[in-house]
Structures are given as C-alpha cells and as structure tokens.
Write a structure and sequence with these properties.
Order of helices and strands: HEEEEEEEEEHEEHHEHHHHHHH
Helix content: 40-55%
Distance between the termini: 47 Å
Length: 300
C-alpha cells in the first residue's frame, strides 16, 4: 500500500510545477502519503491525472485564484486562502490553472489516504467502503479538517521522528470526518474505466519526456509497462484524458515553445531537436497546437 501511495503522489508531483518543501517519512505514515509544496505564482493549463486514493489538497498559506475544468467542460473559478481545501477521488483526469497573489508564498499540503485506512475506518462505522467514494469538493473551508491538517503539517516539519500514535490518531479522526460528511454511496456494479497504475504512468511519461527527439513508439511503451498495445492505450487514455501519441506531440510542442523563448536556436535547429526532420512539418504541427507559427510565437 505504501508503494502504491508513493507512486501516485510522485506521478502527480511530476505533473504539477512547484518546489517540494516537505515529505512524510517513516513508519508513522505507512497508510498515508503527504507532501508540502510551494507553488509558482502563475500556472497555465496543467493536466492532473486520475487518482485512485482520496486526495486532500489544503492551503497552508497564501491566496490564489484557481480554475478547474473537466476535459470537455467549462472553467470554474474559485478564490482560495489559508485553510481552503480540495477533495477528490476521481476516475477521470481534469485540467487546472492558477494565479497567486504576490503578498505571501502559496504553500499547499497534498495528503493521500490509503485505501486500507479508509476501509478499516469505514468498517468501524458499520459502512461498506466498496460502496463509498469521496465526492469532489473545491475551495471549501472546514475548521475540523484545518485543525487536523495543521497537526499533520507540523509533524511532517519536525526534525525528529514522527509519532506513529499521534499521526495515526489524526489520520483516523480525519478519515471518520470525511466519511461522515464528504462521502457518497455509489453502485458497486458501476463499471470503472481501466486506469494505468501510477508507477506505470510515471515510467511511460518519463520515457517519452526523455526521448522527444525519437519517433513515437507505442509498442515500446506498452512493453515497458508489461501490457498489450490495446490495454496500454486504453488505460493511458482513461488516466490522462488523451492518447499516448497525442500527449507525446503536446510535449514536443511545449519543448519547442521553451526553446523559441529561451534560446537563439534557429527554427530548423529546434525542429530537429524535438524530432522533426522537416521544418514545414514542424511548423504545421506547431500551428495546429498553438494557433500561430513558430516564427510568430517567438515574436510574442
């Protein structure tokens, strides 16, 4: 369970920009995973993968305007401040972006609750965890949640070993509260789309990011994850909201945008760097993804 939580947290950590300034460690955290981040002042659209475990994101300090949307939906806007929290346990990826007010650093806690913890606590309440799921909550305030997460944040930041008794007590109390106030019943017969396990997702994304200059190879990615071509493609799409090849092209374009803005390389050199032997093909792909030519983008 711990390795599953860690893989999920690291997969999300790699996708959302920011500097990690705290990490849960030791036996006290065997049923949960927590990280503290200082986020950038502004972030354009970023894709958040699906998560199997309940995930709480709690604002430790700062204020920001955060927008979220489903892949095919409209943007919803929320103002967040210290104590605001987000809760999700979604089968589908979604998009988010934010703008931070500059007065204070924007720091957040990510807390993943292990399914064994949720199941044990649910049974203690006479509930069937298989029929329960945390509902999505955005930019809410809850004094009890803030109190518990303040204690857990302080424990993460301690220089010495964490107290298992203290951490477990807080985690169990938090899980009881979430099940009582933020869980909803769903049918156990509902078909759940196949998700790509977090460690396989990270392996595939890492490989594609480090081999952008090489041709896209679906068979290699499927073999890398020990899956069939069809199963890998379907699971990747269910987790990331797009096909592997589509994600690969978008990363190539993102790399090209950085090179256009941060280097004096010619457009031909940039095209070759990210794997396009034909400058005209590169320009065609870039325009399709951004709406402008590479030359015009460099002038922006």
């Amino acid at each position: 369970m711990r390795s599953s939580l860690r893989a999920a947290s690291y997969a999300l950590e790699d996708r959302i920009p920011g500097r990690k300034i705290g990490q849960s460690r030791g036996e006290a955290w065997k049923e949960a995973e927590a990280q503290i981040f200082r986020r950038s002042q502004q972030q354009e659209e970023v894709l958040v993968p699906a998560v199997a475990e309940p995930l709480l994101v709690w604002v430790i300090s700062g204020e920001a305007q955060i927008e979220e949307r489903e892949l095919t939906g409209e943007w919803t806007k929320a103002e967040v401040r210290t104590g605001s929290f987000f809760l999700t346990q979604t089968d589908a990826p979604y998009l988010m972006r934010w703008q931070v007010r500059p007065e204070r650093p924007f720091e957040v806690l990510h807390l993943y609750l292990g399914l064994t913890l949720v199941d044990r606590v649910a049974r203690s309440l006479g509930l069937n965890s298989l029929r329960l799921r945390m509902r999505d909550v955005s930019a809410a305030q809850d004094a009890f949640i803030s109190g518990v997460l303040t204690g857990l944040t302080n424990e993460i930041q301690r220089a010495h070993s964490n107290s298992s008794l203290f951490v477990n007590g807080l985690l169990e109390s938090l899980t009881i509260h979430l099940l009582r106030h933020y869980a909803e019943t769903h049918s156990t017969r509902t078909h759940k789309p196949a998700q790509l396990p977090a460690w396989k997702l990270r392996k595939a994304l890492d490989h594609m990011e480090t081999h952008l200059a090489e041709p896209f190879d679906l068979d290699f990615l499927a073999d890398l994850c020990g899956m069939s071509r069809f199963h890998f493609s379907r699971s990747f799409h269910n987790t990331m909201g797009q096909t592997p090849s589509r994600w690969f092209v978008k990363q190539r374009v993102e790399q090209a945008k950085k090179l256009l803005c941060q280097s004096d390389k010619s457009i031909i050199e940039i095209a070759l760097t990210i794997g396009y032997e034909s400058p005209s093909h590169f320009a065609q792909v870039f325009r399709r993804e951004t709406g402008v030519s590479p030359r015009d983008y460099r002038k922006l």
